[in-house]
Amino acid sequence: MQSSGPMNILRAGGRLNTVVNILVIILVFGIIIMIHELGHFLMCRWTGIGVTEFAIGMGPCIFKTKRGETQYSIRCLPIGGYCMMLGEDEEGNEDPRAFSNKSIWARIAVIIGGPLFNFILAFIASVVLIGMAGDLTGEINYVAEDSAAQEAGLKEGDVITRLNQTKVYDFRDVTIYTQFYSSDDPIAITIERDGAEKTIQVVPKYNKDLNRYQIGISGGYHYDASTGYYERTKANLWTNLKYSALEVRYWIKTTFISLKQLILGKVGVNQVSGVVGVADMMNDTMQEAKETGGIYTVVLNVINFVILISANLGIMNLLPFPALDGGRLLFLLVELITGKAVPKDKEAFVHGIGFVLLFILMILITFKDIRNLFIK
């Protein structure tokens, strides 16, 4: 009986860590959603469009307050939010502050505002991340035994500058290029070694376990001979801004390529994660980061997730699918080209169908994510 005491303490500590992680995850999603809706809200204010409700979350309301004409609310499900505009889906509203009565460019600005603010958040988070951790390089830190890279003659310390004539700014470019490379066609890798530049042909090898081609390298860190460790390069203001933009570019590019792979059938729907899947990934990453690097490493990983999710949300919302910002933008572009607005009832019907389809997809992905929690 006495020996159960320490075990209970350990279990309590594990539960506490999980609770803290859950709170951090909810906070991250809440901030990202709030920034997205804030983009719409501020554009409404700028263009003079009335806002009837500004909500964070979906479902039943757990808190609300009213300031002027706008009700501010927090809802129980942290999976979305909305900025409800005056006369948004109405025809015949004579209020000059109604969404439908504003110019086409004012309405476009409001719709774009949400995704734009997601990209701004991703950039600011990147500035913080690189300011804390430094920026990456194109330097190879590891070459796997019997890999395509080793057979071709690549070495640790080589700095990759181009891949098949595509410029490499840092190892992020190498990662995204090789991650989605789907053939054994040679890759012309241009490197800097001992002050000289040379190009090496590398033939990727197929990995059956991962179901993709690999060349067998990792890197991005600069070797510091004085410490004997591979480290990020500390950034000055200019390089910080430069590599912050590249960081956002990397996640935007990754999202686009992933969508392309999904459409082409090279990535299955079962590999797509929803809110639950991303939250589980964040929880695992924070647990591992705390064990290996402490709170500082946890903070860096959380910031990295903010960049990833925010950039991803910005891109996904710009897709021309009904109910998303991109779907609404598509109707506005039709109006801009034809000079005639689509009737509101027809547009609302299309968005309604889109919302139902998105909701069904979200339920299916959530079910898959929950099932994976019990079989991993």
Helix content: 40-55%
Low-confidence runs (pLDDT<50, min 5 residues)? 1-16
- The gyration radius over C-alpha positions equals 24 Å
> What does the overall shape look like?
elongated
Mean pLDDT: 85
> Helices and strands, in N-to-C order?
HEEHEHEEHEEEEEEEHHHH
- The count of strands amounts to 12
Report the end-to-end length measured between terminal Cα atoms: 32 Å
Strand order of the largest sheet: 5-4-6-7
Strand content: 15-25%
How many H/I helices? 8
Broad structural category? alpha+beta
Question: What profile does the largest beta sheet have?
Answer: 4 strands, antiparallel
Brief overview:
This protein is an alpha+beta fold. Helix content is 54%, strand content 19%.
Write a structural description.
The protein is of the alpha+beta class and 376 residues long. The protein has helices at 4-47, 104-133, 148-152, 171-179, 237-263, 275-317, 325-338, 344-375; strands spanning 51-67, 70-85, 140-143, 159-163, 166-167, 187-193, 196-202, 205-207, 212-214, 217-219, 222-224, 229-231. The chain has a 4-stranded antiparallel β-sheet. A hairpin with a 2-residue loop joins strand 4 (159-163) and strand 5. Helix 2 packs across helix 5 (237-263), helix 2 crosses helix 6 and helix 2 (104-133) crosses helix 7 (325-338).
